[in-house]
Amino acid sequence: MAGSGLQGWPGWEPAWGALLAAAGLLLGLCWLLGRPPRGLPPGPRPWPLVGNFGFALLPGRLRQRWLRGGESRPLSPHLLLTGLAQVYGSVFCLFVGSRPMIVLSDFEAVRQALVGQAEVFSDRPSVPIVAMLTKKKGVVFAPYGPVWRQQRKFSHSTLRHFGLGKHSLEPKIIEELEYVKEEMLKHGKDPFNPFPVISNSVSNVICSMAFGRRFDYEDIEFKIMLRLMSRALEISVSSHVLLVNICPWLYYLPFGLFRELRQIELDVTVFLKKIIAQHRDTLDRENPRDFIDMYLLQVEEERKSSSESSFNEDYLFFIIGDLFVAGTDTTTNTLLWCLLYMSLHPDVQEKVHAEIEVTIGHDRAPSLADKARMPFTEATIMEVQRMTVVVPLSVPRMASETAILQGYTIPKGSVIVPNLWSVHRDPNIWERPDDFQPTRFLDENGQLIKRETFIPFGIGKRVCMGEQLAKMELFLMFVNLMQNFTFLYPESATKPAMEGRFGLTLAPFPFNIIALKR
After folding, report:
1. Gap between the Cα atoms of 33 and 170, Å rounded
2. CB of 415 within 8 A of CB of 101?
3. Which positions does UniProt annotate for heme binding (predicted)?
4. Where are the beta strands (DSSP E) in 18-77?
5. Three-state DSSP class for 115?
6. Angle between helices 291-305 and 313-344 (to 10 degrees)
7. For the segment 66-89, what is each residue's pLDDT rounded down to a tens digit?
8. Which of 34, 63, 114, 415 might form a disulfide with 75, Cβ 3.0–4.6 angstroms?
9. Closest by Cα among 319, 295, 379, 338 to 485
């Protein structure tokens, strides 16, 4: 009786046999599809169809990172990839679906790829979630080619016109810091969250160049935009949203993180396009006020000479989006890390205070001209950058053609991930790399050492366009704050986990701090 259900159908035996044969064939094909092409770097064997994406599919409680003392925490991608490099070597391969992802984990591999073969490894991969959000435009995620070079060249020269890398920008930064100090003084000896005031101040510097204005710290719309921007960077690399790269239709699901990300995209679009429209309506062709005015004038010029120009308001929207996001989030997080490290290392903070006292004193604001005479302070900022690397996995590249790297074949279309976190924690380069030691950037005479392996802004043709601005802001803001305050970590507070909160950038976990006026 047990088999009567099947046996009651005519020809059940041939049908069942055919089904088993088809299943066997399918399993065989999956096994063949799961075999990586020859010549690739080593790496864990991919699963059929999904590749190595299983790491991201595991629930948070099961995703473990290896830690000293056997403690377990939710896994961060840069730590996972650094751990895999210890198993498979400094160049290894994972698969996203059937697409190879090549991870570069030491300085030599990164330099050989991004500098030695820059033309091959300067493109951006077509990642569904990124393409949906950026439409492959702007200066950060756009494909490498003539349009990108044209737009980046214009953007860089225009930002320089408005002070990028020049002393003329100093007064704007110093002026912004007056608002920061005023906000911090309100708290007296009480602990407070420094995230909002630091984010507002950093964003206002890039806004003054791009939008021609600063925003009041109590401006509700501005505060919402900064919060949404930070949230978008965080959820865009969550395991759920990364599934969009395998099944793009998931992006349009009407619930959860998918819906939240789409709403953020809509809100930021309305905010930025309103600013562009205001500039269009008040444009003074003889006296351009900022980046947007200059771009709109360039659009008019290009229309006169070419009907196929890449300069248009749509592209402008994505460029100022890049400037707004990249110009705020990275420098904000670096400054927050600086304040956190100073509060946890009072001995280092004391030496910074002493150098400021000797070089600048209390009667004037710091200037970039002071930088050359403040090696310990500069070394301290650099050590914070080394320890935290706020863009730990850089922005992924793509191989535009098949290439050979360190003896391995890198197929055309492979995603290239430079693990800058691993580079800056490499024990072969940095002695006791997990220790906070600003003196590693000083020689025996206490003078600053320029180390080529220190690359927090990346290297190659896609090096961060805002590097000069970020260095200016970091030095002037950090020194100004240290000149005026002593930062303490509340005695009753638990020290935050120092591996940080991974989004597209690496932010410190929320913390409170005490700022005592000096």
Report:
1. 57
2. yes
3. 464
4. none
5. helix
6. 150
7. 333 344 455 688 888 998 999 999
8. 63
9. 338
Q: How does strand 415-418 pair with strand 397-398?
A: antiparallel
What structural domains and CATH numbers belong to the chain? 31-128+392-424 (3.30.43.20)
| pLDDT, tens digit (0-9, with 9 covering 90-100), for 408-449 | 999 999 999 999 999 999 999 999 999 999 999 999 999 999
In terms of Cβ atoms closer than 10 Å to its own Cβ (0-12, 13-18, 19+), residue 69 is exposed
CA distance 490 to 479: 22
Bridge-based pairing of strands 403-405 and 408-410 is antiparallel
The phi, psi pair for 410, rounded to 5°, reads -110, 105
* Strand segments (E) across 7-97: 91-96
Count of residues making up the chain: 518
CB 461 within 8 A of CB 123: no
Neighbours of 144 (CB within 10 A): 20
Q: Which residues contact 263 (CB under 8 A, 6 or more apart)?
A: none
H/E run at residue 403: strand 403-405
Q: What is the mean pLDDT of residues 487-505?
A: 88
Residue type, 472: M
Using alpha carbons only, how large is the chain's radius of gyration in Å?
Answer: 26
Per the annotation, binding residues for heme are: 464
95 near 80, Cβ under 8 Å? Answer: no
Measured CA to CA in angstroms, residue 140 lies from 272, 304, 305 at distances of 17, 28, 27
Distance from the Cα of residue 377 to its chain's centroid: 24
